[in-house]
User: Which sequence fits this backbone?
């Protein structure tokens, strides 16, 4: 995990429409930056929909939500359309930003070890510093916990 109080690393990734987004362009706003394993899977869909359902609160507090996974831009487009997601999903197929933000590593399921994305959320303040880091996120009640920091 990145340490709270440290400068969040800048990055540039593309959204579902191929438009580039960098963390620097959001300076002056709080950013909820969440990393998730895969589009349109149960836990990831629940988390995205919980963020979707909280978008008015997030916007009123002058914050933005950015979701990052290794899925393709096209996959993000389908996922966002299917669930009416009103925030930006960014594609990191090479997992450079995912690794930079310490959201990649060895996981285990049913006794099998594999490499994957850890469900991780960072709240970044208006100056680009990590305000809060959430590792090993459990989807239930997570969004409320994040929103309370705004």
Assistant:
């Amino acid at each position: 995990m990145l340490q709270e109080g440290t400068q969040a690393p800048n990055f540039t990734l593309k959204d579902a429409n191929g438009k580039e987004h960098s963390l620097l362009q959001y300076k002056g706003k709080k950013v909820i930056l969440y990393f998730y394993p895969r589009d349109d899977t149960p836990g990831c869909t629940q988390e995205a929909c919980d963020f979707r359902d909280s978008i008015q609160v997030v916007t009123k507090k002058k914050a933005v939500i950015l979701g990052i996974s290794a899925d393709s831009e096209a996959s993000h487009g389908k996922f966002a359309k299917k669930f009416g997601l009103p925030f930006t999903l960014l594609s990191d197929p090479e997992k450079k930003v995912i690794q930079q933000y310490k959201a990649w590593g060895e996981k285990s399921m049913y006794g099998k070890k594999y490499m994957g994305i850890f469900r991780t959320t960072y709240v970044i303040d208006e100056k680009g510093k990590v305000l809060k880091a959430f590792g090993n996120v459990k989807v239930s009640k997570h969004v409320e916990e994040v929103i309370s920091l705004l």
In short: The longest helix spans residues 42-53. The domain at 12-147 is CATH 3.40.30.10 (Glutaredoxin).
